[in-house]
Amino acid sequence: MNWTQAQNYCRDKYTDLVSGLDQLAHLADNTESWIGLFRDTWSWSDGSISSFRHWNLGLLKDGVNKECATVGEEKWDSAACDEKKPFVCYDGQCVSFTCHHIEYHLIEEAKTWDEAQRYCKEKYTDLATVSDMTDMKRLREIVNTQEAWIGLQSNPGQANRRWHWSLPGTQGVALSELKTYFPGHEPHSGNSDENCARNVGGKLLDTLCGINKTFICFNGTEESPKSFIYIKELMNWTQAQNYCRDKYTDLVSGLDQLAHLADNTDRWIGLFRDTWSWSDGSNSSFRHWNLGLLKDGVNKECATVLKGEGKWDSAACDEKKPFVCYKDKVILINEVMTWEEAVNYCRENHRDLVSITDLNQQRWVEARAKNASTDHVWLGLRYTCLMDLWFWLNDNLVTYENWAHSDGECDRCYYAAAMNKSGKWVKKADTETFNFICALK
Q1: Which end of the chain has fewer beta carbons closer than 10 Å to its terminal beta carbon, N or C?
Q2: Domain spanning 102-156+277-327: CATH superfamily
Q3: Does the predicted model carry a pTM greater than 0.70?
Q4: CDD domains, alphabetically (predicted)?
Q5: Which residue has the higher pLDDT, 195 or 94?
Q6: For the CA atoms of the chain, what is the radius of gyration?
Q7: What superfamily in CATH does domain 329-439 come from?
């Protein structure tokens, strides 16, 4: 049969064509035969990396011109993308670690924030941490019409007030790093309420968050002139943040993005500081306040998810409310093993060595790696000489990379990938011994 016919035969009568390097290693017959490996130029609208194809054609479909896929009675075909057809949307969330790094659990028994934190640490991992709008949508679905604690608290004081970028996943910033961007006496310290930043002539000024300004939104993942949208409407900082998140991606964030700005007009950017921190010690800068102003508690306060739209408010931590716990899908193993020993340990006790397919997962694993007793932790990424490529143990394609310099290149076999304390991936001989991170079942 040709390749697609062979694939259809296997799917009809069994599961699929033999797939994955682990399966190939078990083949006992050296006869020339089809396996389930193919390449094409097709990609999914939502950015997912699913390799599933179900073409109706006798041959694997690879469009000559730009084409889009259609579903027939069973199999798929393709057509010019400007043809008009009905279409299918999806609404929902996937549940594997390749989609989400944590799972949320609503506990409807009312407790104080401290009681809720203890409960979550005993039964799950911790009170809910929220990393981005995807997490926020999942949280809103779970909480529904209730008001519930999450793991964010504020204990006001100058020592714990830190600068953050609005765009999730953007590298945090130390004041020393920002000093060159602030002129003279800026930013104000002490008891200053000027906790939001604006860009004026290439310099940063700290300002009261309630003042109305024009602002700059960022859209997409690439930093090109089209990625920056200059909004002329006047809004306070939190309103500007909500506007950018509703219509684009977020307020312009990060020093790399600032370097690309072509307009020196006085505008809000996505830099703010506050005294809020997460119960589990993570460094997520994501905030979703319901207030017109950036919330910075005067007294010790804790964050709660509001009813309906899911925005956040705060309340005294000794009030009793339902709460949301999260269960981690990765775990740091503080034992020292070779890469293969780590693989066997994870598969016997959990699921597998961890795979990382996007920036959000990278940040989550990076936070766990900082607590390791070794300078590096093993990841589920291995180099194969046979095919001259890096591959994840769960057979995901390497679509996201965070190599230190050129460490992704290999000059010999028996290499695996490890993460250092800075979150960078480095190649290491698989006989070296490190802590490691497992994906949970």
Answers
A1: C
A2: Mannose-Binding Protein A, subunit A (3.10.100.10)
A3: no
A4: CLECT
A5: 195
A6: 25
A7: Mannose-Binding Protein A, subunit A (3.10.100.10)
